[in-house]
Amino acid sequence: MKLQANKESKAKSVKFTYMVKEKHWVGDGFHVHGLLRPSHGINKYISPFILMDYASPKHFSPSNKPKGVGQHPHRGFETVTFSYQGEVEHRDSSGGGGIITSGDVQWMTAGKGVVHDEFHSEEFSQKGGVFEMVQLWVNLPKKYKMTDPKYQGLSSQDIPKIQLGNTSELRVIAGDFGGTKGPATTFTKINIFDLSSNEGDRLSISLDKGTNTILLILRGEITLNHKQYEDQSILIFDQEGEEINFETSKKFRGLLLNGEPIEEPMVAHGPFVMNTKQEINEAIQDYQNGKMGNL
pTM for the whole thing? Predict the structure, then answer.
């Protein structure tokens, strides 16, 4: 990953862009925009990423009972939760768990199977407040789909920050940017960067050839290739080209995902992502037979 674009490199173009204004509830604690879903039309351009939900800022009143999602299983991929406002508490059947607060990230590798739940933390529930988060699903290659489960709690203070442009900042959550490495360990080559600008700025980010790149605009707007994109827009780039050049508005924030595509068959069914329908059936049976553990 380069800090400055190669002058001979070609700028990436936007392949797909859209906004999802509608929201739906996941459990009773996450009111989300469903931004990425497995689809034959876009899988080629978003792999290794599968699904992404954005819980845009929402105020929750104080409650004695934490809101969230009760226990449910996963196999064959990883869930990554980014906390922007509020607190999320996680626990799973492999013994992993913890509470993440604003700026923190939790990275759960489901692997061969876990049962977990996710709720607002007890403290946040009692106080109430504004809640904002993103959850991302990251696919695992076939050779790692049955790996042992793993939990990574990434504290904001352990996520390195890089100054860009005049007033912008890039946090390296996973991967590498100009020799600065993120704290997350991954099974494939992935870069995840959290971007923010206080004032309008010009940014240029270079990426490896043949990789997939997605940008979620959380707030503010950007101008790219003479077009403006508003908050809650998602941009999916073509694999061609190496750099993204854009201008940010004031108080901009975005989440940039980049990774090498996993060029293998993928079958997604509910909370399971495998390579064949038979493996999906085996996952369902294993969960029903208690082989993924319990809380």
Answer: 0.94
